[in-house]
Amino acid sequence: MIDFDTPISASWQGTANEAVAAGAKALRALPQYNSEVTALLVELLENYTSRPLLHIVMNDRGRFLVMLSARHLHHSPDRRGHRLSKVRLAAFCEEWQICSRGRARAIASTLRWAGLLTAGPSVEDGRARPIVPTAEMNEVLDGLWRRLYEMIARLFPQHAHILMGLDDNEAFVRRAEWALISLNKSGLRLLDHAPRLRALAERNGGLAIAVVTMFRIASGRPPQSVAALARQFSVSRAHIRQVMQIAEMDGLLSTGAQSAGGVEDFRLFDELANLVASLLVILIEAGSANAHSADAP
After folding, report:
1. What is the pLDDT of residue 18?
2. Which one of 211, 250, 263, 277 is at 20 to 30 Å from 244 when CA atoms are compared?
């Protein structure tokens, strides 16, 4: 079991999955943990409702890591002073085993279409075409990290200093994002700690659609119609049917069931709680004053 008062071993050499699993188990044992996860899910759903494009850019591990990589490169110029560009992003994503160069370029185009990346100021040599994160991207990611560190501070008051430093010390956020990028290369996959979510996470809006349905069933109301969900999440009715079928086949939901007495009784909630716990373990390590931040290019 991880002692959250002591930073996890600096490099986690080959033991990242085991360390995360142990830390997540300790978090799940806290009596207030499930209520914190419930509140987090409600807030994330509200954000999805107000930002429909997040269904497209935040629901996929590769897309999310490309977003983090874009921010990393924006803050990390190379020897020539070049920061973020499609060419540099594609090369970085291939080197750090996030995705292929072609997929990185395609995701960058999607992020530009979604208003999360935009053209940057021209550079002297005229060969690179710089792009920069928009205020919208920064708001989405910074808001996510702040919300998660607020949760950590409530669960572990001894880590409140991390939250207090977010506004004044950008390094906290950069370290958190770098941790996810570098641990991905080492083989750590958050969904390995919540494997039943994998199929849903591969569908646009899949997790959000399932969570909305879970909350409705838990409150004693019937699930929304396929047509209503399709309108809410800007997807086809066939897509909604596929997501519901996956959720039921994997035992995460039963759309024909009555209220189970609360969201905590659903297998979907249990898997989501495992996923969040695994992410929090990484953020606690990344936010530690003694966290290892070398190796970053």
Report:
1. 81
2. 277
